[in-house]
Amino acid sequence: NSESINAEPGINGNEAVHTAAIYSDSYVGDIKVQATLDNAIGAGTPWADVATVSLNNETTPIPVNFTGVFNYVRFQASADPDSKITKILVRN
């Protein structure tokens, strides 16, 4: 799992559109975008899947768009992302 990222619910209103760009160096697997409505992140924080991106050796940035008013988002990899996912940029 990635770090939890503040989804800035106060500025997003009812039609919150989020965009993420996944930078991969030949990663093979799925990246799930997960979100929570909780105000604080802890061990028992419930996360819901809001989007899934399947990667198969891509080397160019892969965009993913999702909508919703969330407090935090994170990304979960189905395979070990070490040195294969170089960064994920998020725009709220």
Describe the protein's architecture and organization.
This protein has 92 residues and is mostly beta strands. 4% of the residues lie in helices and 54% in strands. The chain has one helix and seven strands; from the N terminus they run βαββββββ. It has one helix spanning 9-12, and strands at 5-6, 17-24, 27-36, 48-58, 62-67, 72-77, 85-91. A four-stranded antiparallel beta sheet has the order 1-6-3-4, with no helix packed on it. It has a three-stranded antiparallel beta sheet with strand order 5-2-7, with no helix packed on it. The radius of gyration is 13 Å and the shape is globular. It starts with a strand and ends with a strand. The mean pLDDT is 90.
Instruction: Summarize model confidence as the mean pLDDT.
Output: 90
- Helix/strand order: EHEEEEEE
Count of helix runs = 1
Give the biggest sheet: 4 strands, antiparallel
Strand fraction: over 45%
The backbone outline, from C-alpha atoms, is: globular
Radius of gyration: 13 Å
Walk me through the topology.
Elements: E1 5-6, H1 9-12, E2 17-24, E3 27-36, E4 48-58, E5 62-67, E6 72-77, E7 85-91
Antiparallel strand pairs: 1-6, 2-5, 2-7, 3-4, 3-6
